[in-house]
Amino acid sequence: MTDLAQLEATAEALVAEGKGILAADESDGTIKKRFDSIGIESTEESRRAYRDMLFTTEGAEEYISGVILFDETIRQTSADGTPFPKLLESRGIIPGIKVDKGAKPLANAPGETITEGLDGLRERLNEYRELGARFAKWRAVFSITDDLPSQYCEWTNAHALARYAGLCQEAGLVPIVEPEVLQDGTHTIERSFIVTSRVLGAVFTELFDQKVELEGILLKPNMVLSGYDAPHRASADEVADSTLRCFRRHVPAAVPGIVFLSGGQSDEDATAHLNAMNVRGPHPWELSFSYGRALQAPSLKAWAGQSDQVEAGQRAFYHRAKMNSAARTGVYAPEMERDFVAGGT
After folding, report:
1. Is 178 a catalytic residue?
2. What is the pLDDT of residue 133?
3. Are 259 and 288 spatial neighbours (Cβ–Cβ below 8 Å)?
4. Which candidate, 260, 335, 271, places its Cα nearest to that of 298?
5. Per-residue pLDDT for 344 more than 60?
6. Cα 139–143–144 angle (5° rounding)?
């Protein structure tokens, strides 16, 4: 029997006050696109050096509770030879691992996907735990149109998410359950609310039916936003109100925390939206962040693959982590960004 108390303790540590999660689990294809944007080649060594820069940022542990790693990264080492999971643990940061195999076309559902990776997952989870992981992540994606997502897509992905979550808890790993409703398109915030509500309803029905202990999971969802190409983009207050209304209806209070993904939001928008939600607290769950690009983009640009720019990259990463920590308690303000630009931290 899995020790639920241990799972709860890990989940609660990941959403500790003022802290959030760094998603450094980009696939080879995604990290290549990001490296292409700064004109450097994506090689095993350049990826290792980049992650090493992030993980060795002095003081990052003040704001970062955990890091989601990719299969390659969990097996790599820091410049001094320390395995990345051990490096993170030594700084009080919990190592995690992405375990899904990506979204593939869903049979008989044009334009929709199913996330694969359940085959052999039990064995892989046990290996990852041996390598140092204490939590895992699985992402399912849903596109919004006038007709999509279909109920078929919603329930098929919800079932897979719950199967993954159950296997994680069996292995002693906290599952991060990530149902991402993509915000690409011209849809209204009202349409986003309806779709996100349906997806969350399916996910928690499956989690309950498959006997997943909700006290030992974290939810990593999208915020309820207007489509990125919508004629009218909702304000931060509208985003906060719609997102909170949706989640209060569909996310049980037993869940320790909601760690939002940033999706295609700008760095500052992702921070401002999280802040607006926490200003409206307290909430039944901790509201935190599990950002990838929105934590890393300024750091990647400042580093630019240059060994003499590591410190600049680390300063940029530390700043974004600090801004999102402020948003966790509702004290973030845009003026704090200008202070950094002016040379402060």
Report:
1. yes
2. 98
3. yes
4. 271
5. no
6. 140
pLDDT at 342: 41
Catalytic residue among 19, 98, 137, 220: 220
Kindly indicate the confidence band of residue 1, based on its pLDDT and cuts at 50, 70 and 90: very low
Query: How far is C-alpha 112 from the chain's CA centre?
Result: 21
Q: Which fold has domain 4-341?
A: TIM Barrel (3.20.20)
Query: What is the bridge-based pairing of β-strands 20-23 and 286-291?
Result: parallel
d(CA 225, CA 280): 17
Mean pLDDT on 95-106: 98
Averaged over 79-101, what is the pLDDT? 98
**Dihedral pair phi/psi, residue 342, rounded to 5°:** -75, -5
Q: Does the active-site annotation cover 220?
A: yes
For β-strands 103-105 and 257-260, DSSP reports them as unpaired
Boundaries of every domain in the chain: 4-341
- CA 220-225-227 angle, to 5 degrees, is 120
Task: Let me know how long the chain is.
Answer: 345
Could you tell me the CA-to-CA distances from 240 to 40, 95, 125, 138, 279 in Å, in that order?
A: 38, 30, 35, 25, 9
Other Cβ atoms within 10 Å of 61 Cβ, number: 15
Spot the catalytic one: 154, 178, 206, 286: 178
HEC letters along the chain: CCCHHHHHHHHHHHCCCCCEEEECCCCHHHHHHHHHCCCCCCCHHHHHHHHHHHHCCCCHHHCEEEEEECHHHHCCECCCCCEHHHHHHHCCCEEEEECCCCEEECCCCCCCEEECCCCCHHHHHHHHHHHCCCEEEEEEEECCCCCCCCHHHHHHHHHHHHHHHHHHHHCCCEEEEEEEECCCCCCCHHHHHHHHHHHHHHHHHHHHHCCCCHHHCEECCCCCCCCCCCCCCCCHHHHHHHHHHHHHHHCCCCCCEEEECCCCCCHHHHHHHHHHHHHCCCCCCEEEEEECHHHHHHHHHHHCCCHHHHHHHHHHHHHHHHHHHHHHCCCCCCHHHHHHHCCCC
